[in-house]
Amino acid sequence: MEHTTLSHHLLLAGMLFVIGLSGVLIRRNLLVVYMCLELMLTASTLALVAFSRFNNTMDGAIFVFFIITVAAAEVAVGLALIVALFRQRQTVSSDKLTTLCD
Amino acid sequence: MPDGLFIFFAALTIGAAALLVLSRNAVTSAMGMILALVGVAADFFLLDAYFLGVLQVLVYAGAVMVLFLFIIMLLSDTEENPTTYPWRHAVTGLAVFFFLAAGVIWLFVWSGAVPSNQVHFAPPEVSSDPLVFTTAAKSFGRLLYTKYLLPLEISGFLLLVALVGVVSISKDSKIQS
Predict the structure, then answer these.
(1) Taking the domains of chain B in order of start, what are their residue ranges?
(2) 3-state DSSP call for residue A31?
């Protein structure tokens, strides 16, 4: 902690967010796309914790606590939806799930 | 220059995230995701947010990723066929990656928008002021049951709703198939 500044942590968070976003654009497997979304969420929590630490307030850390709670609920519901989709269509590739496009 | 631990864990996190995006096998992607989440948890520790680091490992790298791995193993269609891998998705993704990465690096390294001359001090373990950043898990509890009581209640209710929703989604699809 001696020499890291706020910008180092923000740089890490920003790079993680960008990698997650490009993963959402590149990948076709719905499960991997979902994992990339989770990575973007985690990157934002990292930025929040960094701001909270360097501003010497507790609010950002509490906010991260709520984000982790909501993300756990969100993952459960999203994965249930993907499983239901797989039972209907026998695929998790977003290339083949184009019913609304056709 | 940042200290060595930060560089090590930042490189680990970025490399694991790249593995998550680039690996064609979904299980390998999940392993990269776990590694990236552990790297972020280590960065929480470096930021003196010990409670959040433990929570990150327990909830994200533990429970959530076990759920992901379980679903990946359950659905057999995990391998992406290279022939159904259109090049324009990759080109779009890479273009977005390079433009946004350049923007992020410019913003946080060269633009000077982020103050870099931060005062460094060890956070107190316990503080009488509930709003000051402390390392103890106790300060989380104090704020959660005073200032953030309503959001805590709402997130508890949200977990209940998610539970009921997941059960009903699984049940419906079973009846239809």
Answers:
(1) 1-79
(2) helix
Mutation choice for A interface testing from B43, B58, B105 by most A CBs within 10 A = B43
pLDDT in tens, B93-113: 899 999 999 999 998 888 877
Question: Which chain B positions have a beta carbon within 8 Å of A20's beta carbon?
Answer: 17, 21
CB contact under 8 Å between B55 and A68, yes or no, is yes
**Cβ atoms B69, B30 nearer than 8 A:** yes
Q: Is B148 in a helix, a strand, or coil?
A: coil
- With an 8 Å Cβ cutoff, are A6 and B131 in contact? no
Reply yes or no on whether the pLDDT at B30 is more than 60: yes
Contact A97, B88 (CB under 8 A): no
pLDDT tens digits, A45-93? 999 999 988 888 888 899 999 999 999 999 999 999 999 888 888 888 8
For chain A, which domains are there? 6-89 (1.10.287.3510)
Q: Which residues from chain B sit within 8 angstroms of residue A87, using beta carbons? A: 173-174, 176-177
- Is the domain spanning B1-79 CATH 1.20.120.1200? The answer is yes
